[in-house]
Design a protein that fits this description.
This protein is α+β, with helices and mostly antiparallel strands and 309 residues long. It is built from nine helices and twelve strands. It is globular, with a radius of gyration of 20 Å.
Length: 309
């Protein structure tokens, strides 16, 4: 890796988590004036079976030994796409660290899958320097994702009753397979979506908080929608929410969302949050806005087709 004099790079270690969290929060504060929860997201990435810290992560150390930059590469299906995530501490920008990690990530993506057709990179909407760097290296912006929030410190709207639809909590292990199937089917055709490994889903659901997993059941017993949530540094986070096509625009998505809001509030979370593709053609952004959520910040997604060429 071509680094400025005095800087060094190595794979991340579990003991680096606190320092990486502080680096990401410093970057968020500089770029968008906020510091969003990130610890659980990073820890989840590092603990995934498909991620090797030795292979897939790099930390860059400044001459004084402090963390100056971080990057990781991940993807469920390297033969289809990989995502490179790079953050440089504001005090160390402008010296070429971002370019060095971009080169490292591209080289790694080709090692993991010589035929990978797409390499993605997400950066804060406000980070003009990162935008310029990506465009100069052959990336094009393809999407904008919104991080949306909703305050839960007041009365939470009750879950509505729906004709022919029951909203109930997930039950383990009986629902594990049907829950997976409905979420996978719900997201067929969505931009950037790829099959989620069933083994990961099965392992995760074994320890998931049942208060934060909900199903929508049709009158014939068919599971037609579902949502998963978690608590991230006290914030209620809607990880995923999906409804089968024939049951959309019937209030099912809203009912599932409100069930999550009620569960978050019951656990003392003052805020609910989620990420959504602003170009989603199912109407999800409008659904969330109608439920009281607002855009907190935006992430711009860039793609490079056939990296390395």
């Amino acid at each position: 890796m071509n680094l400025p004099a005095g800087y060094s790079a190595r794979p991340a270690e579990i003991g680096d988590l606190d320092a990486v969290v502080e680096l990401v929060k410093a970057a968020d504060l500089a770029d968008a004036g906020v510091q969003d929860p990130v610890r659980e997201h990073l820890q989840y990435t590092w603990e995934r079976a498909s991620v090797s810290l030795e292979r897939d992560t790099r930390v860059v150390l400044a001459p004084d030994g402090r963390l100056a930059a971080y990057a990781n590469v991940e993807g469920n299906h390297p033969e289809l796409s990989l995502e490179l995530w790079v953050r440089v501490h504001p005090a160390h920008r402008g010296g070429g660290l971002g370019s060095a990690l971009l080169d490292w990530g591209e080289a790694l993506s080709l090692e993991r899958s010589p035929t990978v057709p797409v390499l993605r990179n997400s950066v804060s909407h406000e980070d003009a320097v990162a935008h310029d760097l990506l465009e100069a290296n052959g990336y094009a912006q393809v999407r904008v994702f919104w991080h949306m929030l909703c305050d839960l410190d007041g009365a939470v709207e009750p879950v509505p009753s729906l004709e022919g639809i029951e909203i109930r909590r997930y039950e383990h292990p009986g629902d594990v397979r049907t829950f997976y199937d409905v979420l996978e089917e719900s997201f067929l055709g969505h931009w950037g979506m790829e099959p989620y490994p069933y083994e990961d889903h099965e392992r995760e659901m074994a320890t998931w908080d049942p208060d934060l997993a909900w199903l929508a059941i049709a009158a014939d017993g068919r599971v037609v929608g579902g949502t998963l949530g978690t608590l991230v540094e006290g914030t209620g986070w809607v990880d995923i929410l999906g409804v089968l096509v024939p049951f959309r625009r019937r209030g099912v998505g809203r009912a599932l969302l409100l069930a999550q809001f009620a569960s978050f509030a019951a656990k003392g979370a003052p805020i609910a949050a989620l990420n959504v593709d602003s170009g989603n053609d199912t109407g999800a952004p409008s659904l969330y806005a109608a439920a009281g959520m607002r855009v907190h910040r935006a992430w711009d997604v860039f793609e490079k087709q056939e990296p390395g060429r």
